[in-house]
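A reminder from the course coordinator: this example appears on the midterm review sheet, so study it carefully.

Given structure:
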């Protein structure tokens, strides 16, 4: 945690030297990559790696490919353009992002905010008051997503101050926390933390798991603690080449999430971030995965597949083509197995002029008595 991170992150691989030694990498290459985006991996998450280059490894271990790529943008979602104060991203009419922590337990190599995450000069505690003031003065904001970095890298007291301050703003109805801590550092989820969080309902937590091997006994315990506190849990995955770009892998992830009481919420097409081209798949791959989910597993296990549009246009959901044709007579659809079905359209009656009796003189005055 930012208040006492040396304790909670004790044993993490935090320097290029530690990362290079642990994974047998070229130190100079690791140093070059770490100069562009911070490197840190918790021992817990490193223990999930089965072999070099596997799905867990690819997500957190620095790769020289991050420096070889010229495509992408530093701020692909144009968040900086929608940032009236440094801690706020206000794009949608009734909700906004409140960035309260620059730290993460481990640093995802595909991070959308790699331009600012891990840099205390970009996401600084002094900006929190500016963010609270902004929210107080914008009564249209009813939903606040507390993000970062990772808000659960703050100490309990600091995090509670933020939640309590938000709860005191009358027009703020919903609080959400976005975190990858249950995946990277499940022991951060303590009874003390969840007992504090439950005081600020309605509170939702969106977690981030990308592969079924991340759902372990330890992460399951952390997630169940949150669920037992009455906190609805949703998961946001990112579609990543060599990690989860396989229909069976993604289906198993969604099924395992439900077992630990997490509702699959989004699968994101990987953002157009500079230095992450080696993670991006085609959109056709995402549609193939959605085709392998809908109907082939529980509807509860089917998230939205979205692209967070470059340029700041917001999230746009994408679906496989189930609607084959549509006219005044019928709707032709295909189901999950590729079979065609017809739904008859309702026959709308033509509109008629109101009937007026020819015996009635509507211009005459009522009879006198």
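Designed residues:
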């Amino acid at each position: 945690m930012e208040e006492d991170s040396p304790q909670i992150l004790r044993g993490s691989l935090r320097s290029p030297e530690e990362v290079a030694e642990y994974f047998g990498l070229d130190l100079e290459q690791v140093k070059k990559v770490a100069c562009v985006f911070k490197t840190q991996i918790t021992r817990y998450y490193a223990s999930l790696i089965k072999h070099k280059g596997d799905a867990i490894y690819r997500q957190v271990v620095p790769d020289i490919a991050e420096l070889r790529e010229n495509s992408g943008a530093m701020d692909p979602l144009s968040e900086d353009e929608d940032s009236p104060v440094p801690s706020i991203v206000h794009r949608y009419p009734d909700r906004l992002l409140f960035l309260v922590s620059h730290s993460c337990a481990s640093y995802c190599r595909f991070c959308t905010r790699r331009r600012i995450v891990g840099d205390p000069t970009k996401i600084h505690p002094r900006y929190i008051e500016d963010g609270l003031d902004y929210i107080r003065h914008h009564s249209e904001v009813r939903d606040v997503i507390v993000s970062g970095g990772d808000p659960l890298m703050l100490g309990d007291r600091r995090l509670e101050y933020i939640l309590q301050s938000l709860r005191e703003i009358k027009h703020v109805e919903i609080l959400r926390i976005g975190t990858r801590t249950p995946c990277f550092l499940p022991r951060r989820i303590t009874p003390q933390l969840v007992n504090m969080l439950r005081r600020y309902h309605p509170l939702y937590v969106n977690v981030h798991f990308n592969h079924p091997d991340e759902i372990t006994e330890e992460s399951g315990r952390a997630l169940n603690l949150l669920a037992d506190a009455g906190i609805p849990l949703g998961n946001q995955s990112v579609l990543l080449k060599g990690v989860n770009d396989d229909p069976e892998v993604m289906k198993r992830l969604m099924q395992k999430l439900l077992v630990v009481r997490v509702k699959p919420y989004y699968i994101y097409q990987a953002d157009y971030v500079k230095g992450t081209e080696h993670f991006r798949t085609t959109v056709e791959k995402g549609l193939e995965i959605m085709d392998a989910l809908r109907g082939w597993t529980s509807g509860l296990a089917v998230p939205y597949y979205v692209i967070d549009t470059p340029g700041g246009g917001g999230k746009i959901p994408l679906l496989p083509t189930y609607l084959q044709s549509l006219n005044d007579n019928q709707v032709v659809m295909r189901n999950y197995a590729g079979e065609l079905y017809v739904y008859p359209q309702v026959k709308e009656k033509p509109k008629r002029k109101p009937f007026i009796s020819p015996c009635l003189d509507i211009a005459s005055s009522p009879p006198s008595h």
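The two ends are 90 Å apart (CA to CA). Residues 362-369 have pLDDT under 50 and may be disordered.
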